[in-house]
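Quick one - first record:
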Amino acid sequence: MKHPMLLWLAGITLTTFSLNLAAAEKNIHQGIVDNYKAEKVSDHVYVIHGPAGQPNKENQGFINNPGFIVGDSEVAVVDPGSSAAIGRAVLAHIRKVTDKPVTKVFITHIHGDHWLGNQAFKEDNADAKFYASAGMIEDAKQGAGDSWIETMDSMTEKATAGTELVIPTEALTQDQEIKVGNVTVKAHLVEGKAHTSNEVMFEVLEDKLLFTGDTISNARLILMDEGSFPGSVKNAERIAAMDLSTIVPGHGATGDKAIVTAYGDYMNKLYTSVKELREEMEAHEMKPKIAEKIVAYKDWHSMDDTLGKHISLAILEAEQEDF
């Protein structure tokens, strides 16, 4: 008979081996680890700027700008991406910068390319807290979360498979301030719609930096199927009035308020043009005339593919204003 101590040690060894094997089997988006870097954009903030385009098999769903805030004793993540594998890659980049625990994750809105990476941070720290608006949390619980899992699986041809929902539990209030060690993060809930409903922007007070989520995009057009053009203009005006030095958009390069001004100008010119022209011509006839008015933005990514869609959506919104 084997000595009880040997059996106990064998059990420990087997358990450790099983845990290590399970960890090794977890997918990680190695392309993000190898081909991207966490750029330091302010004293406490780093951003991994994602590529342009829609989620697909090649990018494995990585298209947004995951960011992280490093305080003196802990770390917070903003919008960790669209899969567990992407979240694990973001965590790998954090570990290149610091070994401080990731205790908080902030989510800007319901679209899955921004928050399905939550799983990686729950795996890393079971006590981590996940923050979002009350509306986003409710939408996720009512089926939007499951729908986004399916959408990402479909768009990436199963490259995001295995991702599990980790729905935020901490509902934010307007102007709520949350400490990340010695750094203060302030939640700005968006009134009405901009890119979609129930959005939150996150200000890092000490750095005069704002994570805008998809309420602002830099030099690229994004989908507005659930959004509002005048709402986007109003939100851009709100940001422009804030005391900020750095803007981290949901997509595109980090910059200053010029990003906000340009995005708001595009939204305003498109919407006012649609309202002026809709009684005279059909949507497809508007496109060349509106393109002339927004010529400053002609080189923005996906302009050719998306401008017509924006015009059609703007017409629908303008018609709704009439009732």
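second record:
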Amino acid sequence: MTKYLKRQSLRIGAFVLLIIVYLLNESLLEAATEYAGKNPGLANRFIGVMLITVAALLVLFTWLYNRQLKRYNPRQFGRKPFTRQRVARLILAFIIIYVVQVAWSQLIVHHLLPMPSNQTELESSIRQLPVWNNIYGVLIAPVFEEYIFRGFFFNFFFAKKSRLSTIFGVLISGLIFGYLHTLSFSVTTLLYASLGWVLAGTYLYFKDIRYSIALHFLNNLMSLI
């Protein structure tokens, strides 16, 4: 029992550390955005540091993820071939996310739900530094977030292949994903959690993190169009 608690504590610590590292990298973009209008030279330095750390973290995350799969991988995660059937099912998952987004936006338009506060902040950041905020949001964030909230999360806590483990894994993964996008428990948290649930289901169904990354990419891209 003591050994189990120690192992789980180490996993929780490692998972939290990965989130902190990602948030610190994201804070470099926030700093660049803040100085974009006041001190462009300093903003460019922040962007340069951000790009260097993005490259380093992508290499690190990829190495850690593949290392974990080699050590213990009962769910048989890995690289699966892209086929027409798989792509068609990925498109179906995207349609599900799109329907959720449209339904939620209609509730906001009709004043049945409030506008997410983080959405307002995001739009403000994009106005101040459009190119890099869009690049980060569409191309970089999906990779980091899928590694953390799907890849590492299931490897650390729900690697066991069972129905109960799958249900709890998807539920908790989505809730953590939702909370970290709102930093509070609200109705809006459920919107992000529902997106997290679809992404977690995608990862577990296809057993290839590239599919959930692609779906996450398409979702974020859709918000810009």
